[in-house]
Input
Amino acid sequence: MPIASHKPGPASNATTPGGALHIPNASRAPGPKPAGLPAALLALALGVVLALAACQRPPADDAGRQQQAYALYDGYRQQLPQVADIAPAKALALQQAGEAVFVDARTDAERAVSTLPAAVTEAAFLADPARFAGKTVIVYCTIGYRSGLVARTLAQQGIPALNLAAGILGWLHAGGPLVDGTGQPTKRVHVYGRTWNLAPLAYTAVW
Output
């Protein structure tokens, strides 16, 4: 009876020319292995991008600075939808008519540079709110976020308060004045940080 010949299939083991048994390595893929960036390098690249973004110069004209200030404020306002605000031009008119009290929600260091005329601190206002009866309470900070939080707290205590839209930056772009610690007019303003360096060009910003 003829004996059928057997040919090894593609999965069979084969011998090398030297007679050693060779077992194919199915996991070895042809071509170069793709190299990934080390985590440290990615972190460094991200740090450079953030540093460059932080060093970007503010707009070179007042219109651009005002637009950017209001764009920032709009973002903050979305986090405080229940807080009513007031446009700086309207707040300025109330101030000139003696019908508003401005509550400064900033730090002592910021207030030491300049404030809105006749502004009071949050603590001074809360010590005797009754003495400001009949006046519109307007809270302000640099851009309107911290003051929005204070205005919300006052409202929760039964004291109606408005948030100054775009804060002290919006006030300056509307033509509002500032005074220093002695009550004298000044062109210096504390803007809290580089991101908010958006005061009109006539002012010297510090942070």
